[in-house]
């Protein structure tokens, strides 16, 4: 029963965080992270991670990303990809070079510097999108620019992991074939998604597909309409989970797959087959949003806050490194991503800066790389590990704060259009 007790504690903290966010008018994400930090360092939650809570948190981020994709317009997302490649490239290159150089200065070990650069190169979109959601900015072109850049960044980061981890750990020499396999898997995932979106889900099928028994005669509309839409929530969550599992098999984080699943589910699929006046989209969306942003999704951010275990001696020892690393990556991320968004993506400067602020967060891949370097292969010393952990924490805190502070200027620019 202990895991359920821990979950009850986390839900209490989620409620408290929501109250504090309402009183201060700051995004709840900031307080979710703080609650996790507080719970783990006061001994209310155990320092040894509970598998049930970890898995529950994973479900939370999958549902959050699905909910964000679910309310996004697919055509707008596709159009924004053309503007995103430069943001992804330079938004990752700047932090990589900066963190590599800082690590080389402090620790003067190539493998350590390489892994530090890799850990800090990849941004996380989940924290940013929820922060934008809390400010009502999730459907802006800047938000789409962040999301599409993150998808491209995810692919390039996987390639870097395949290239640099074997070199840093001394296991093998990275091969062209290995990198080619990752690229092929990424293409394969999107080809499958495109096939499902174009031919499997739509109500109207191409002639060749209509010949297939059962599948050829029934589309997603029939499934979502079953029982007057009573099973629509279960159906879309199942699609999100399956897409997340598929993404995982192809080397992505499951949250990316869930977001894509939300994108390909169009509002028209929820219109009643028999009665054109009936529509199950709004009722389904309301339940999904409640699950994602009120009681399951927040567990992910509380659990993320528990990653920082405070130790005064270590904290004091790594303060200079943490300050330089955090400041350097912040500057590099904002400058490189914003300039790329402005001059390659053709965003307004206010939008470009919002994209730069939105790409400050570090989570999934950063912690994976730290685990490989510190736990599995002992490349990182305790000092290096905690420097990166504290840096990731402060970068994550900066995301909702900078978005909140920049929102008035951003809105002025949008209103002038």
Account of the protein in words:
- It is a single chain.
- The longest helix is centred in the N-terminal third of the chain and has 34 residues, at 74-107.
- The chain has helices at residues 2-24, 28-41, 51-70, 74-107, 110-121, 126-134, 141-169, 176-200, 207-210, 220-225, 232-249, 254-264, 281-295, 297-305, 312-317, 319-343, 349-358, 364-376, 382-415.
- The protein has 417 residues and is mostly helical.
- It contains 19 helices and no strands.
- The chain has one domain (2-136, 149-415): Na+/H+ antiporter like fold (Up-down Bundle), CATH 1.20.1530.
- 76% of the residues lie in helices and 0% in strands.
- Domain count: 1
Tell me which oligomeric state these chains represent: single chain
For the record, what CATH class applies? Answer: Mainly Alpha
Terminal residue distance = 55 Å
Strand content: under 5%
Task: Tell me the helix content.
Answer: over 70%
Uncertain segments: none
What fold name stands as the CATH topology?
Na+/H+ antiporter like fold
CATH architecture: Up-down Bundle
Specify the overall morphology.
globular
Q: Describe the sheet with the most strands.
A: none
The H/E string reads: HHHHHHHHHHHHHHHHHHH
What structural class do the secondary elements suggest? Answer: mainly alpha
Total strands: the figure is 0
- Helix count equals 19
Rg, Å, rounded:
22 Å
Mean pLDDT: 83
Record the SSE blueprint.
Blueprint: H1 2-24, H2 28-41, H3 51-70, H4 74-107, H5 110-121, H6 126-134, H7 141-169, H8 176-200, H9 207-210, H10 220-225, H11 232-249, H12 254-264, H13 281-295, H14 297-305, H15 312-317, H16 319-343, H17 349-358, H18 364-376, H19 382-415
């Amino acid at each position: 029963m202990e895991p359920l007790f821990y979950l009850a504690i986390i839900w209490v903290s989620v409620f408290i965080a929501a109250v504090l966010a309402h009183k201060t008018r700051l995004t709840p994400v900031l307080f979710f992270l703080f609650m996790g930090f507080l719970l783990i360092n006061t001994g209310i939650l155990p320092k040894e991670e509970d598998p049930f809570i970890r898995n529950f948190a994973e479900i939370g981020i999958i549902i959050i990303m699905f909910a964000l994709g679910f309310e996004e317009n697919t055509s707008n997302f596709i159009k924004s990809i053309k503007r995103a490649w430069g943001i992804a490239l330079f938004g990752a290159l700047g932090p990589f070079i900066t963190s590599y150089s800082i690590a080389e200065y402090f620790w003067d070990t190539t493998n350590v510097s390489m892994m530090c650069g890799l850990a800090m190169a990849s941004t996380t979109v989940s924290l940013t999108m929820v922060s934008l959601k809390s400010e009502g900015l999730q459907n802006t072109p800047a938000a789409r620019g962040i999301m599409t850049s993150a998808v491209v960044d995810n692919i390039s980061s996987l390639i870097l992991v395949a290239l640099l981890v074997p070199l840093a750990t001394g296991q093998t020499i990275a091969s062209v074939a290995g990198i080619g396999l990752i690229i092929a898997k990424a293409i394969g995932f999107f080809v499958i998604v495109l096939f499902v979106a174009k031919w499997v889900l739509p109500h109207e099928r191409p002639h060749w597909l209509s010949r297939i028994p059962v599948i050829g005669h029934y589309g997603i509309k029939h499934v979502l309409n079953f029982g007057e839409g009573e099973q629509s929530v279960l159906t879309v969550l199942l699609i999100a989970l399956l897409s997340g599992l598929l993404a995982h098999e192809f080397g992505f984080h499951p949250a990316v797959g869930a977001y894509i699943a939300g994108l390909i589910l169009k509002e028209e699929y929820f219109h009643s087959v028999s009665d054109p006046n009936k529509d199950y989209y709004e009722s389904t969306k309301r339940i999904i949003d409640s699950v994602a942003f009120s009681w399951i999704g927040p567990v992910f951010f509380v659990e993320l806050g528990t990653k920082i275990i405070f130790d005064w001696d270590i904290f004091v020892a790594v303060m200079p490194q943490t300050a330089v690393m955090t400041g350097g990556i912040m500057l590099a991320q904002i400058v490189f991503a914003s300039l790329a968004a402005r001059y390659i993506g053709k965003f307004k400067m206010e939008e470009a800066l919002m994209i730069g602020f939105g790409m400050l967060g570090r989570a999934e891949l950063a912690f994976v790389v730290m685990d490989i370097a510190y736990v599995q292969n002992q490349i990182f010393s305790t000092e290096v590990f905690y420097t990166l952990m504290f840096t990731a924490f402060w970068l994550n805190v900066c995301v909702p704060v900078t978005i909140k502070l920049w929102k008035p200027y951003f809105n002025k620019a949008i209103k002038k259009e």
